[in-house]
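Data deposition worksheet. Section B asks for the primary sequence of the deposited chain exactly as it was used as input, without tags or linkers unless they were present during the calculation. Section C holds the resulting structure in token form. Section D is free text for depositor observations; keep each observation to a single sentence. Incomplete worksheets are returned to the depositor.
Section A, Depositor: J.P.
Section B:
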Amino acid sequence: MTAKTISCFKYDFLLFSVLSILFMSANSHARPVAAVIYPDSAEITEFLSVDVQRENDRFFVRFFLPIHAVKDSLTVNTASESKIQITSVEIEKQSLPMPDTAKSLKDKLKELNRQKSDCEANIKANTTCISFWQNQAANKPEKIENIESILKLGDAIKKGIKGADSEIYQFNQSLEEIDKQIKDVEKQLDKLTGSAQKQWQVTVYLAGNSQKNQSPKINLSYAYNIKNCNWRPIYTLNAHPAKSEIKLYWYAKITQNTGIDWDNVELKIATSQQFTRPDPPFLGDWVIQPRRSIAPSSMRRKAVMAEKSMMFVDTAQTMGAGGPPPEPKRDVGVMFDTYDLGRHSISAGDTRRVKIREMDLKSDFKYLIRPQKAAQAFLFAQLNIKDDAFIRLPLGDASFLIDSAFITNRLFSMTDKEQKLFFGSDPQVDVTMNVREKKSGETGFLIGKKQYRWGWNVLVKNLKSHEIHVLMEDAYPQLRDDRIKLEEIFSGVSPQKEKNMVTWTFPVLPQNETAIEYGYQITYPDEMELSFGGR
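Section C:
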């Protein structure tokens, strides 16, 4: 082990020791026992056995909360068997004393910055030296006195450039190491002087039995909300078209930055944010009047709030070993659902991924093609989930796979038991569209009338080893004048007309192809000029 490694180890160990002592002195017996994690916060429940103190004729206990705790959310209870009552609670911010380690770290940072400045100055000096010698080499003497003087000048230029270049390399190496040390020291210093060195001091005043009969200790349980802890949903959807099913895995990605390690904590997650307020909302007047237009900024703000209420928001570590844990219990609430994830241990600053659900979704797979827009076939699953099996899944990041092969990452939510899930285009389904005809002309039997005809041929090739089902869609012509007459030209598979769309549904056998031909003809007055809608 080098001297540098030993030095770094000493600093890390000293830092860990100081922080541990500060935390233990602040809350020596407190331990989180349960946590309910919301998309943007968490409710922590802790248990504490603490000494009862006396000040004049008042009895009280004192404990501390992390600085990120929402102080107005604190609730405190004594043990049910205790006859002691809580009379009042006071909460105030407290700054912890700055440890001596911070001064030594600041001195070290100052020295490292001095060394960095020296290196940069030496690099600049050697760069200037190289420029000088290069300038000497470029300026040839007007008259050569003797060969010996020229050779000496050449050797001097060579040695000067080589020596300066070698020193620049060495100083750059030293500068890289110094920058790394500066980052390490700044990180340690930030831990000592950051927000972790502030906390909420909670004083709970008590009444009940006399101090003579009172136990020197009292058991408290308290709960509070904290901001820097959250979770968001992560999904994996693995489509198996040949089996007509989707394997859906739902995980909770939990970020725990409370500053306190969780050891065997009862963990729950909630599917929406909790809104706590001590007072009821103000009841305003009921006014009925003409509607006012909503400003765009207000509309955007409302849309963001609506999206945030759905959102539960990479190197994640999957918890557990051995056999799969039991499926989390779902509690259906009025405002949101909660899922009991069981007991987990998560260190402060850690991000953990915990499985919530694994579901088999029976699905009807088809390939959607829109040949007028793209020569691609997009695989989608039409869900058909029974009412008693449907779970509304919030918006989150999802990985989409087909037969365990990764396809893409994108956002996913499940809001409808009959919704469509798209898995991207499949290169093994080839779509080709050819224009059979596109022309205009006068009618031969109706004087004063004009015609326009369109015709297309769509060929779908199935290069897969199993049969596929195709849904082809196209826009149906919309006529904006009663004098325009439309004639359909369909052959082969008959389409369905839905509002302003026409659709075809047909199978394609493995290693085979299917052709669809269709078109339209319009007749309109000779004096009418038409826009053909881009076709």
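Section D:
The longest strand covers residues 350-369.
Helices lie at 3-26, 100-138, 147-193, 296-310.
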